[in-house]
What does this fold into?
Amino acid sequence: APEGKDGASAAENTPPRAPQGKAGERSSAFCSAGQFFFEYLVVVSLRRTPDGHYEPKITYQFPKRENLLKGQKEEEERLLQAIPLFCFPDGNNWVPVTEFTSETFSFVLTNVDGSRKIGYCRRLLPSGRGVRLPEVFCIISCLGCFGLFSKILDEVEKRRQISMAVIYPFMQGLRESPFPAPGKTVTIKSFIPDSGTELIELTRPVDAHLEHVEFQALLQRLSPHLILHIFASATLERRLIFLAEELSVLSQCIHAVAALLYPFTWAHTYIPVVPECLLDTVCCPTPFMVGIQMRHLEQVLEQPMEEALIVDLCEGKIIRAVGDEEEILPRKLQNEMLLSLNRHNNNNNEHTLEQVNTLVSEAFVHFFVRLVGHYASHIKWGRSGSGSFQERAFCKAIASKSCRRFAKKFVKTNMFSLFIEEAEKSRMPQEGNG
It folds into this structure.
């Protein structure tokens, strides 16, 4: 399993609690407003090896960390070793070029203690003459907000075309600014030679659980029908493999699939872009959600693999399925979600990205509310204040047969258990629990 490899895999949604068990399986909640924007900015460049290949290496790191304790130093070294692999997950068969389209993607690293960091990457061709190699600017942060960091990377790229030296004051200014609360804006002053001082406004979306997500990415590539097959497989914690060539497509679509599970969290191996040297992840008998570049399709299909759902994001089709995906979700609720997704599909151009996010998220949250929203009234509270969930009574309370059948499977998943464990700990007055 890839978890051992620099602990570089994680669940990619805001988890409700810190992990138990193996590193890399689960991660603690995001840091909140008022934190540092980022921990590091690293530049990863391709360096030629004696055998003529290119190997990604960190060529710059800001800030440099001094006075670290021994444990922190080891942790930092492991983090810095893993980063190049995820900045160039597509192997080392590179050749210098004169033109290259910038791309933006992200990856996730999990520390031994289960805390999680996100790497936001912009791969670009540095300005210059003649042939040269792309490099990656990677911002490591424990904050999940893809839109915000894309905007920061736009600024980094703009400055890179002038000179590396112009990037540092900007990043220093960013590091000294507190991360805004949802819906709030932070303004950063930045000086660029020949342009003078610029004011850059960075605003966080109001709905914090959707700020790492673009559901539009999924709707553009897959029919609502297929999205529901994928969602059904994810609710039963199966193995999911997504294929596309572009790293940005893989990372966007996988973040979106994981976000469909809100308020639950994918609690297993999660690698939005699997580096070439970790392709045997797909032999893993445990659940996983991974993205693989299309060029590795043959290699993946040759692996001895347990049942998995393999989705081609380029063609918008399923390459391999278990076969029962149509039957997993209760029919009536499935049809309601289809209607809802089709409605957004027909309005594609009228809605902003944030509106699409909200509408899609609401349809899936509504599904969970209808099915398991009564969980709070089936937690029995003891005198000591600790609760215990009454699973049988909970399932029995569901009138519809097909809903009960699904719920009986869903309560056995890791994501439901973790959600309930959290609920048993916090005796809060629940709505609908009168």
